[in-house]
Write a structure and sequence with these properties.
Layout: E1 8-12, H1 16-28, E2 32-35, H2 42-49, E3 53-57, H3 65-74, E4 82-87, H4 92-97, E5 102-105, H5 110-123
Parallel strand pairs: 1-2, 1-3, 3-4, 4-5
């Protein structure tokens, strides 16, 4: 990926403070950021935005991130999007078994997120 084209990261996270911090962090690291509303239709947004990676909270306001992940993986046009799941619960094995590309246990360090995103995008 050239410097001219920024990797786009989509955030599906219902904590407004977390979204604000992540947007600032990711932009400082040179990513383009698209943040979704807590109740957004994530698969539709992924189709519209075509992000390089999706950071998906397991526990969204009125949605289950695992169900969203399954929907993304089942649909041919979204099956390949790289998804990093995040949660305050230790559900890494379940997330990975359902097709996540990575998992971050909250609270995580910004460096962990950046390293995981860069590895995923470079390996694409």
């Amino acid at each position: 990926m050239s410097k001219a084209t920024k990797a786009k990261i989509m955030l599906a996270e219902d904590d407004a403070i977390m979204v604000s911090l992540l947007k600032t962090l990711l932009k400082m690291e040179g990513f383009e950021v698209a943040a979704l509303a807590a109740d957004a239709d994530v698969p539709s947004a992924v189709r519209a935005e075509n992000p390089d990676a999706l950071l998906l909270d397991v526990h969204l306001l009125h949605q289950n991130g695992l169900h969203i992940l399954e929907a993304l993986r089942k649909s041919k046009d979204t099956a390949k999007v790289r998804v990093i799941m995040s949660s305050g619960s230790s559900v890494k094995d379940e997330c990975m078994a359902r097709g996540a590309d990575g998992f971050l246990l909250k609270p995580y360090m910004p460096d962990e997120l950046i390293a995981m995103l860069k590895n995923l995008i470079q390996s694409a």
